[in-house]
Each structure stands twice: as C-alpha cells, then as structure tokens.
Recover the amino acids of this structure.
C-alpha cells in the first residue's frame, strides 16, 4: 500500500463540506439517533440471501473510517461459502463449550445470563454472510519490508462501528461474536500472522420469530455516559 519514497505531506482543499443551520444539525442528529435506536443484536436469522454488492458497499463504508497515521490496519473477510461457515461454527462452538464449562470464569458467565447466550451458535451457519474482522498488527511497504501500524485496536474499533451502522442502514441485522481464542480463523481463512482476528459478525435478515433479550433494551441514560464541561 505504501511506498517508502512517497511518504511526504501534501494538502488538498477539504473535499466535502456540510453547511447546516443549528436547526438542521439538530434535526439530522435526532434522525440518526432514531434510526440507530432501531438497531438490535439478532441471534435468529433467516437464510434469505443478501446480495454481495450490498456487503461490498458496507465494507467500503467501514474502510472510510479514520485510523492511526491513515494506515487503515484492518481486513474484512466476507464468508458466504457454506462449508467455510460450517467450519467456523464448529470451531467457534468448541471454544464456546470450554468457555461455558468454566473457562470464562463465574463472574463473566453470570453477567451473560440476562442475554441468554450459550455454546450453541446456529446463526453462524444460517446467516447468509459472516464478516470476520482482522486487525493488522503491521503492514509492508512496496519492497516487502515491514512498517508499524499505530492505534490498531482503536482504528479497527472505529471501522467496525462504521460497518455495523452501514449494515443497519442497509436494512440488515447483525450479531457480533467473539469466541476466545480466535486463532483458528487465521488458518480457516488463510490470513497471515500479521493479522489478529477481532470478531465474527453474522449478517442477514431476522427470522420471523426473532427475539432479543429484554435486558438489551436497557440503555444507560445520557447523564451516566457523558460529562459536559462548559
């Protein structure tokens, strides 16, 4: 991606500029808030296909996120192949069985009770797409030598947030899944040692009888998640 001899700084005029009145800003913020409040983590999917073009556009949105030194230290593997999804499910469920058998610790497992999760992950094969998020710990110049990536967890987290918002805006449901450890994903998906798997995102349409945990609708009030110093 980067050439050692082309790392100089140059500036261009701001290419996109939004000019809104205070009222327009407030309306836009409220509209986006209302839209995002309808996003839910769904565990019950239908196998209705989702066009690859939709996934590609959502990934382009994720790729537009800000990142440390603009290194864009992420890679997304979109999986629709049934055999690969089955392999991911089998290996994920093996990790999850160990977790729920005590590997996760009593406090963590207790905290998950209101969410209603267990070691069974049928969504990994039912959902038409799995998007596996990888964090790139280092990159390579055009001559093959390594360069360090910066603020990798923060950058990948922001890009993943962009992706989840884009998927929801496209009318899709998603579920983040983080079996621990996830090293099996490198082997299953042919990713290099420079990349660390961060999560699996199941993507698709909700089943007709889909449910969400009642506890998931309980959100902290603004006063608990923010402080204003004016």
């Amino acid at each position: 991606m980067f050439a050692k001899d082309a790392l100089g700084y140059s500036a261009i005029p701001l290419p996109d500029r939004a000019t809104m009145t205070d009222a327009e800003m407030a309306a836009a913020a409220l509209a986006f808030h209302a839209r995002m409040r309808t996003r839910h983590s769904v565990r019950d999917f239908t196998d209705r296909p989702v066009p690859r073009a939709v996934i590609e556009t959502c990934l382009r949105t994720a790729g537009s996120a800000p990142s440390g030194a603009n290194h864009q230290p992420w890679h997304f593997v979109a999986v629709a192949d049934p055999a690969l999804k089955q392999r991911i499910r089998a290996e994920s469920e093996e990790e999850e069985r160990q977790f729920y058998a005590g590997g996760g610790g009593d406090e963590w497992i207790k905290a998950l009770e209101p969410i209603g999760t267990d070691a069974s992950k049928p969504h990994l094969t039912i959902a038409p797409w799995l998007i596996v998020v990888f964090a790139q710990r280092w990159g390579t110049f055009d001559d093959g030598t390594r360069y360090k990536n910066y603020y990798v967890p923060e950058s990948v987290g922001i890009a993943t947030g962009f992706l989840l918002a884009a998927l929801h805006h496209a009318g899709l449901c998603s579920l983040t899944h983080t079996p621990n450890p996830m090293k099996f994903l490198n082997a299953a998906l042919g990713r290099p040692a420079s990349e660390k798997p961060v999560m699996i995102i199941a993507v698709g349409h909700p089943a007709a009888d889909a449910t969400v945990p009642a506890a998931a609708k309980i959100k902290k009030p603004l006063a608990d998640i923010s402080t204003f110093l004016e």
